[in-house]
Each structure stands twice: as structure tokens, then as C-alpha cells.
Amino acid sequence: MSLDMKQKTETGISDLRAEAGREDRLSIRSVVCRIVMMFRNFWLVTWVAVAILGVRVNFAATSLPAFAGTLTGEAPPSAEPLSLWYRQPATAWTSALPVGNGKQGAMMFGGIDAEVLCLNEDTLWAGGPYTPDNPDALAALPEVRQLLFDGKYREAERLISQRMMARPLSQLPYQPIGDILLTFPKVTNAENYRRELNLRTATASVQFTSEDVTFTRELFASYPDNCLILRLTASKPGHINFKLSMQTGENIVDSEGTNDTFILNGTNRSASGIAGALKFQTRAKILHSGGTLTKIARDITQQANEADTGNQRSRGFGRGGNIINQSSSEYSLEGADSATILIASATSYKRYNDVTGDPNALAAAIIDKAAAKGYDALRKDQLADYQKLFDRVSLDLGTTEDARFPTDQRIRNFAKGNDPALVTLYFQFGRYLLIGCSRPGAQPANLQGLWNSDTSPAWGSKYTININTEMNYWPANNTNLGECVEPLMAMVEDLDVTGAKTARTMYNARGWVAHHNTDGWRATAPIDGPQFGMWPMGGAWLCNTLWDHYEYTQDQAFLKRLYPAMKGAAEFFMDTLVEEPKHKWLVTNPSLSPEVPHPGGGSVVAGPTMDMQILRDLFAHCIEAGQTLGVDEDFRKQLAATRARLAPNQIGAAGQLQEWLEDWDMQAPDPHNRHVSHLYGLYPGEDISYAADKEFVAAVKKSLELRGDNATGWGLGWRLNLWARLHDGPHAYRILQNLLASARPDPASRRDRSGVYDNLFDSHPPFQIDGNFGGTAGIAELLLQSTAPCVGQPAHIELLPALPPQWPEGKVTGILARGGFKVGLHWRDGKLVGADIRNTGSLASVDITYADKTVHLTLDRGVTQSLNAQLSNVGGTN
Length: 878
Ligand code: FUC
Hints:
By secondary structure, the chain is an alpha+beta fold. It is 32% helix and 23% strand. Alpha-L-fucopyranose (FUC) binds at residues 447, 459, 464, 466, 468, 595, 674, 712, 714, 764, 768. Residues 447, 459, 464, 466, 468, 595, 674, 712, 714, 764, 768 line the site of alpha-L-fucopyranose.
């Protein structure tokens, strides 16, 4: 869309943004509303809207008008190879650059005469504490089960819809805090413009020269000091001039501030009939050397914002469909030499059931402490904290000429060129994002990690736990970011409580259950519609994801913390598994193979393959944990007996791994569905072993081929890991090419594609962060695979199991293997040159495989053993 900068008034960025949104959406909004009225089903509406109109849902939310002046010169490539960089400002949110400290996040556009920082604080969700469990469900359960065993799928789905779904039917969306807006004096020409995200320093920056003055703007997020720090400098004194204000889609209570500190107090929105219960505050303290800072009261009519963002009553997608409130104060800095703006947001959210926090006190404490500390100390601590995590892993897949180009161009060239360094950048960007959105004390990474600018984001930017949240944590262990798992553990501890209520109320069962989604309020009942929500496995899968962390670290304290949640998850199934009539297997009922319709009608069934695989893993983990911790002997026996009666994996007539109890796969209405749930057993699960279960592995391969290579972003992320587990480097590389394809709209359909946006964010479409994390995990999985030790068996590490031919030479250090090992690898001409294996855990014993050879190593804790290409010892160090 073309927007004329001449329209722009000094504070008019928001008008233009709203305008931009309206232009794209007016025609679709009425259609969307009609569908809403017809189906009253948010999930379906979202899916249809995203599938058909994907590009507009996200794109329209936040944009910055293109620079109206001229861009001249050609900035040199960034000196740091681990940088995303561009020669023009971002105009769309999906080109802007993210920074985050786990809790506070910002997207920086890097404009020339205006800057927009879209802010997030991870506890700002719509609504407030609520309990969605449906007490009618229990009475309906026996009939639903019988209908499913009788093959009356439509009737079962109808009854579930009437009696078993959550109230409200949707969970509540994650909210953006709002935007800090900076406007600068008008510039007609910018020379040598470069915008960059340096992954080594976790800093987003902009630099350009105008009328012989070089301007630099740098933004980073500090975890130790819990704030965002924006620094503005110029090559000549007295040239820092800006006006600062804010806008938000939430409700503004006041925005008066003090002499040098912008303060906005607000409240969150209601959604799905749940009243907003949160207060929040954003503070921006402007420190400057030289110049004059003035506070200006603005004559702004604030618009009441009682629009219910939630689902059935959604007024359109994206902020453009909603009201944007402007702050009533603006700060003007004139003639300064430099400025540092300290930004922090806080909310009254203390826990999913406690909203009594004091955002004013919290934000004030953060900003006062940061101001007293000063820029240099803030920077030093941020770098030390970040680099401690980020620098643990290095990857070198080689560099070619393509690496000289700006990132947006490299993305577009990737499929036809040879740019292994873009894969390295993408891999490290995934690690950067995880550090940026999941740190101890913060909320876990949601569908957009931490970064969301929409008040009605796609799928509520929630925690979808039938794949997406789990995928977010796949790279946490193998790429050596174990600390980032902590928020997921904390969330599961909450779900253990809220899910216990759901288990009691809806199933009269012990333990706890979470269905396919949760939100900031830790809701656990089935939502959206039976065909998506009636899946009781979300909590169990999360437990298996956390178990993986234990397998990598062998951390006994973590195991003790995790065990009660695992046990509770298993207890739920001990009480709810039922015997299916044909084989007398024990199965889940009702359930589904996530979101995939079957030929019997709808998707709800009894005993889909994935459920059985998740449960075999969960029960095995509980048995092993109970043994290790020396507890619950009787329960372990019961688990073992039940586990033996679960429906087994089955191979269908086409040689595929059956997705359901029946051999339906070849008649299924959506054979190329993005979900590959029944393949969970091979990855990320442990139910099917590549080494030991050759027949099932072949069946997985067949199923994967039948599903095809095209999918949404996360669907590609999953396929990448599966092809890696299948030891097929060339096929995995083809998937990686799809994952790294440009998401820019297809010219014919004008829809975004799956792949990556210009800022390397994964495109479902729209933006969803899971694909980034699946991709990062998958790249590591191509180079190293491992299995944990289990009774009588040592841990096992396989070196270069699926090396793509496109990376003949390379080196990786610091990646982790299950059992507590850190690994470095070096290869040339596609063959191993050497490996370093370090024992970082308590285990001493490991089998190492490369190609056809396996050796056994015994290593003391803290010892590194170096191996050559023949896996012979060539030295060790303490
Ligand atoms: C699941 C997927 C969709 C989307 C949504 C957030 O339900 O089926 O593709 O990723 O989660």
C-alpha cells in the first residue's frame, strides 16, 4: 500500500497506521463478522481468516510509513557475521527487529524521521482469572464414549459440542502494551543507512548520515535490570532532537508522567465476557546530556475502549480494527548531545489467580535502579548475562559470497543460491529468540514468543499445547539453553493445579488434565470446538517435554520438582482410559489426532496413535523417575500393567504408520495436513527407536512421504526434525529450504507464504515463533542425535547422523547430548575429522556412533575426550 508521508502530522503515525490497517481490512471485516455469526466458533474463524487472508491478519496490525525522502549511498555489510541487517527501515512489523529479556520485549522499526518501539510485557493478557470447566461434561461422558465406540462420530461431536466444551468457549488473548513513538525533525536524505540486529550483543541498531551528521540509535533488553535501554547519539553535539509519546490498544487511565519520565497507566481489555482485571504501567525515563527536555500536555480526546476483543465478538483482526488510544503527554528533547531512554512496563499480574501486584511500584523500582546504575554498568551486565548463554554454542557451516548481502536479499536468494551462513544465522537467531522470550521468572514462550502487536492476535497468541508450545522448547536442550526451560516448568506447576479442577469437574478423575490450549490464566478445559479442543493430552505432552530436560541434564533436583506433575498427569489417564471393544486395548476416549479429520466424519475418535505414544512415554518416565527417586512402588506396577495394555503402533495397508486405531489414512479427507502427530513416536518422542524398531521407522517414513513436504512454518519445523531422525540429510535440507523460503506474498494470491519474513521470524503464516524453534532444533539434530541412558543401557550419541551434502565442511561446538554430555564436532568433505565429548553430568558411560562404527567411552565428570575420525582416543583433558 502506498502512503504519502505528506499526510503525516507530527503525531500522526498512529492515524496512518490505523488507516493502513483499514485499507486492507474493510472489505474482509464484514465477511469475517458474518462467518463469526454463522459459526460462533473462534478457532474456525481464525483458521479460515488466517488461511485465506493470512497476510492481512498480522501485517495490518503495525506498520510505519515508508521514508518519504531519499536513501543514498550503500552502507557496507555488517562487520558481525551473526547479524541481521538491512539497507532500509522496516515498514511492516515482520521486518522490524525484536529484542527481549524474557519478560519485556520490543520490536524496533528503525525509521529515519520516526521510530516505533512496539512493547510487550509477558503478563499482559486480556481478561482476568476465570474457571472455564464445564460441569455438564461428566454426565455426558459415558454417552460420548459409547457413540465413539459405535462409530457414530458426528453424533459424538455434536454431544461434546453441546455438553463438554469450556465456558467461555475460547481462551483469552495475549495483549501488546502499546508503542513508544519517537518523531525526529524532518530529514530529506539519509546516507549509508543500515539497520541491524547483532546477535552477539543482542542489540538492535540504526545508523545513517544526514547533512554530515551521523545518527546512531541502539536498543537492547537487559535481563539483570529488567528493562529496555534505547540510546541515541550523533557524531556532532547538539543534534539529538525528538518528541516521545505513546499509543496503546488497551485502556489509558492516565499518562501524565513527571518532568523527565513519561508514565502511562492503563488497564487491560475484556475478552470473551471475562472482564479485564489487570492494571499496567509503562515508564520511559529520558536521560540526556546537553539540550532541553520539556513535557507537553496534548489535547487528545481519549476514546473509550470497551470493545470486547474476545473471539465471537471480535471486531476484526489486528489493532487496526480496534481503537488506539494516544497518551495525553509528550516529551520534547531539543539540542541534546546524546540521550538514553530507560523503558519498563509492569502489570498487576502476580500469578494466574492473583492480580494484586502494584505496577507503579514495580516499574518505578526498575527505572530508579537502572537510572542510578547508569548506562555503562547496565550495558556491561546485560552483555555478561546474555553472552554467558549465547556464546555457549558456535556453528560454522561455511561462508560464501552470498553472505555479503543484506538479510532480506539473502532470504530471497536462499533457494537458488548457496548460502550456508544464512542457515547458521537462522540457527543462532533461534537461540537468540529463546533467550529473548523465556528466562527464569518470566512467562513461557507463547505462540509469538513474547512479541505481539495485535489486541486480537491470531490464535490469541496463546499456548497451543498440541504442538506449538512443545516445539518452542525443542532447541532449549540440544542448543545448550537449559535455563530457558524454567518458565515452562513453572507453567506446568500451575496447570497441575488448574488442570486438577478440570479433571475432577469434567471427568471425576484424579490427577490433572490440560487440553489443546492454555493461556495466562492457565485455563485447561477443551476450547474452540470439539474437532480441535477435545484432546486431553496437552499436559502429558508438556511433561514429556520437560522430561527431555532431565534426560539432557540428569539434574536430580529438577527431576524431584517435575515428578509430582508427571505423576498427576499419569493418574488422570489411569482413571480415564477405557477398554475398546474390538481388541480390549486401553485407549483415550474422547480424543483426536490433533486437528486431522478422519474418514468416519469429524476428528473426534477413541485411541489415536499419538495419544498412545505420549502415554507410553509418560508412563515409562514415571516408572523411571519413581525408581530413581525411590517412591511409589505400587503405582509403578500399576503403570507398567496399564502401559502394556495401551493400543500398539500399527502399520496400515499402504505400509504407513496408522494415525488412528483403524487403517483410515489412505481415505482421510486431508492427507497432506500440516500435523504429523502419529509420528511423535519417532520425534520428539521415544516410543519408536531409529536403531531398534526398523519396521516402524519404515512406516514413519512412508507416512511422512504421504504427508508431503509442504506445510505451515511449524509443520516444516517438525518435518525437518523427522527427516533428521530418519537419517536423511538431503531430504531434510529440502525441508530447510522450504522453512527458509521468503514469506513475502505470492504475487498472484497476495497471501503471505510459509517460510520466513524479512526479519527471519517464522511464517505460519502469519508469524508464529514455533517454526523458528523447530528449525533451530532440527539443524542441531542433523549434526548430533542422542538417546538417554535407561536401565542397563548407556547413553548413546550419534555424530553427523544426517549431514546434508550442501555442508561438506563445518564445525560446531557446545551442543548437548542426552545423558549430560557436551559435544564439539569438526568435519571435512562430508566426513568426520574429530569430536570432543565432555561429560558435564554425573554419568560416566556413553556409546558413540559415527557411520557404521560404535565405541564405548567411560568419562569422569568434567573430563573431555577427543576422538579422531575412526573414533579412537586422541587425548583427554580435565
Ligand atoms: C494449532 C495448529 C494451527 C496453529 C495453531 C496455533 O492448532 O493446527 O496450525 O498453529 O495451533
